[in-house]
Design goal:
Length: about 290
C-alpha cells in the first residue's frame, strides 16, 4: 500500500463531516465532501468558513490558511460519483444500520479498490460494516471526537479483517491531519462510547428522577473530577439523537438492560431537542 494521499473523501456533511473536511483542508489536503442535500452542503460551507475565521482570530500565530484557501480545497457535491478517485474516505452518516449499509454498498461500487474506508461511527461494528464491501481488509473504524479540528487523539478500531497495512496507512492519514491515535479491537461502542454512553444515560436518569438538575450534575463532574464538560453538556455537544442511536446499538448488541435508553432521553429526542446542533437540549444555545 503506497503511503500517499492526494485527495480524501468525506461522506456526510453533518457536525462530524464538517469537522473532518475542515481539518483535512486546513492541513493542505484536497477534499470531496458529499451529502444528499444542497442545503446541507451550503450550511457546511458557511460553517467551515466561520470556523476557520474564528480559529484564526484566536490563534497565537496568524499565518494559518485563510477561509478562502480552506474552502478552495473542498469540493462540495451531491454526486457520490466524484469519490471515484479519492485515496482515503471517511464516512460520517447517521448512526442507523440500514443507512450505513446502503452508503457502503454504493461507495464500494464507486471508489477505486485501493481506497480505504474509515467509519466515523459511535457504536456500530466495524466488522459488520466491512462485511457489505468487497474490501473488508481496507475498512477501519476512526472515531473522531467533536470538535474534530481541536481534538488531537482519535480512537481507531481494528475490524476482524482489517489488515496491518490499513492500520499503518490510517496512522499516516491521521498524522497528516496533525493527530495521534489509540488502536483498539472491534466491539460495540469500542472503549470511549461503551463507557461514555452509560455515563450520559445514567446522568439523564438522575435528571428524570429529580435527584439533581442538569447543571448540578455537570458541576459535580467538572468541579470534583476536573472534567472540562459535564456528561449532559457533552451529550448536547454530541447530539441527543446520536446518543440515543448509540444506546440503541449497544442495547441490541449486548442484550444487556444496563444500556436501555432513559425514557427522558427518548422524549427529548422525539420533541426535537437534539442539543447544540439545533439550539436546545439540556441547555439552550444560539442557532447560527
Amino acid at each position: 500500500m503506497t503511503m500517499d494521499i492526494q485527495t480524501a473523501g468525506v461522506v456526510g456533511a453533518g457536525v462530524m463531516g464538517v469537522g473532518v473536511a475542515q481539518n483535512l483542508a486546513q492541513c493542505g489536503m484536497d477534499v470531496v465532501l458529499v451529502d444528499i442535500a444542497e442545503a446541507v452542503l451550503e450550511r457546511a460551507r458557511i460553517e467551515i468558513g466561520n470556523n476557520v475565521r474564528f480559529q484564526g482570530f484566536f490563534a497565537k500565530e496568524k499565518n494559518g490558511p485563510t477561509p478562502e484557501e480552506v474552502l478552495g480545497r473542498i469540493t462540495f457535491t451531491i454526486e457520490p460519483e466524484k469519490l471515484a478517485d479519492v485515496d482515503y474516505l471517511v464516512e460520517n452518516v447517521v448512526e442507523k444500520w440500514p443507512v450505513k449499509e446502503e452508503v457502503y454498498r454504493r461507495i464500494d461500487a464507486i471508489c477505486k479498490p485501493s481506497c480505504v474506508f474509515a467509519a466515523n461511527t459511535s457504536a456500530i461494528s466495524i466488522t459488520r460494516i466491512a462485511s457489505v464491501t468487497r474490501r473488508p481488509d481496507r475498512v477501519i473504524g476512526m472515531h473522531f471526537m467533536n470538535p474534530v479540528p481541536m481534538k488531537p487523539l482519535v480512537e481507531v478500531i481494528r475490524g476482524f479483517h482489517t489488515s496491518e497495512e490499513t492500520i499503518e496507512f490510517s496512522k499516516f492519514f491521521l498524522k497528516k491531519m496533525g493527530k495521534s491515535c489509540v488502536v483498539v479491537n472491534d466491539s460495540p461502542g469500542f472503549v470511549s462510547n461503551r463507557v461514555l454512553m452509560l455515563t450520559v444515560n445514567e446522568a439523564v436518569f438522575l435528571v428524570q428522577e429529580g435527584v439533581a438538575k442538569a447543571e448540578e450534575v455537570d458541576r459535580i463532574f467538572k468541579s470534583c473530577f476536573g472534567h472540562k464538560m459535564g456528561p449532559l453538556e457533552t451529550a448536547d455537544l454530541i447530539g441527543l439523537d446520536t446518543i440515543l442511536y448509540s444506546l440503541d446499538v449497544l442495547y441490541e448488541s449486548f442484550n444487556d438492560s444496563k444500556f436501555r435508553p432513559c425514557p427522558l432521553l427518548k422524549k427529548m429526542v422525539d420533541a426535537g431537542l437534539h442539543g447544540r446542533k439545533n439550539g436546545r437540549g439540556f441547555y439552550n444555545y444560539p442557532v447560527l
